[in-house]
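Long-time lurker, finally posting.

We've been working with Integral membrane protein (Streptomyces odorifer) and I want a structural starting point before designing mutants. I don't trust myself to interpret raw outputs, so I'm hoping someone here can both generate the structure tokens and explain anything notable. Sequence follows.
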Amino acid sequence: MLSRAVADGAATERVRTEDGGAGSAARGARVLAGLGRGRAWFRSFRRTRPFWGGVWLVAGGWTVLKFSLAPMRLVVSTGFDGIAGYLLGGGMILSGLVPLAAPQQRYTFGIIGAVLAVVSLVASNLGGFLLGMVLGVLGGSMMVGWGPKRPARRERRTAARSGSGSGEAA
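Top reply, 14 upvotes:
Generated this for you. Predicted structure of Integral membrane protein:
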């Protein structure tokens, strides 16, 4: 009897191991499918917004903000010179993030971000020791220059032919 119980236990353990392996493979497939969907969503998001301009403008704003951090007592006692780094860096970060949510505002916030970056040269530690200013101007100009992705040339030709063909028939 004892040998039979041991054999049944071993068989049950083999079944559990095989089922666990199948469950693990299915779970891995679901994770990979989820990652694929997430990557496709991010690619679509990135291509429909001035993503890289926003990234560079936020990086420039963070640099200006980082190089102007000081204790609050010093910031308050120095007046605008102390607060300028916070205002300019925060404004550059905000100017980089808003067009990601509302791409139609890219011109306005791209220009505002570039102007804040240039002003930071004078008002805040040489614009984050020139690095923040350069990143901010680069990001602002990329935002202004960005445009929605146009359809491929082949698709435009097909659309033009079908549009002209239907116009002739009418």
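Before you design anything, note these points.
The chain has a mean pLDDT of 82.
The two ends are 90 Å apart (CA to CA).
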